[in-house]
Amino acid sequence: MKIDLIISADDIKREKVEGKSVVVIDMLRATSVIVTAINNGCQGIIPVLTVEEAFTIANRDRKVYVLGGEREALKIDGFNFSNSPLEYKRNSVEGKNLVITTSNGTRAIRGSVGAKNILIGALINARAVADRLIELNNDIVIVNAGTYGQFSMDDFICSGYIIHCIADKKSDIELTDISKTASYIYGENKDVLRFIKGATHYKRMKELKLDHDLNYCCQKDIIEVVPEYRDGLIS
Ligand code: MLT
């Protein structure tokens, strides 16, 4: 089982993900939102690239669809939710269909089409993701959403933790140089919140006083569900 890693949504190449088990990571905050919403009973999530596309789908029936996401980390006008995972509580999302658009995370999910499986991962469900990847028993590509096409420390260290969780249970894994580096970085920095203090998106969230989101997203393994994207829908 080979484990490779792609550092941003802009760097995804179809031939790299085709036929592989992909896990998309945008721990601050898109994939943390998706994992939380599904864990709280959200029926399905449709990731879209533009705000217009989101409204077009949701306007089919505003009782069935709710809208969530961000631009520049802020709530979008006319949307029900921002991109704070703390808003996706059971009483808000249970039985609902969420249409979501974010700057990097939803692009990374959509960009991974062609993979055999597209799992949604974050620190909050990392160990469950690792277990599912072992079960799938296929070559793995960890897709980091990154930040506007740039490498991001948060997604990278989260990937390192997932690799550690896989390595705990499986010895015959082959790491590319970049996944080896992610694993090494996590091994040296197990306090994820502390490590990501220098990250660009961490700083943006601090400016916006989103400390509760940062604390929530930096918890390891509080959720067991592993959402999967298939035929346009995450469930
Ligand atoms: C993204 O998709 O870029 C993020 O989730 C951004 C955010 O949460 O602010």
TrEMBL record:
Keyword Hydrolase on entry: yes
SUPFAM superfamilies referenced in this protein's UniProt entry, alphabetically: ComB-like
Entries under InterPro entries matching the protein: ComB-like, ComB-like_sf
Origin superkingdom: Bacteria
Pfam families: 2-ph_phosp
Entry keyword set: Hydrolase, Magnesium
EC number: 3.1.3.71
Required co-factors: Mg(2+)
Reactions catalysed, as given in the entry: (2R)-O-phospho-3-sulfolactate + H2O = (2R)-3-sulfolactate + phosphate
NCBIfam families: PRK00886.1-4 (NF002055)
Family: Belongs to the ComB family.
This protein's name: Probable 2-phosphosulfolactate phosphatase
Gene designation per UniProt: comB
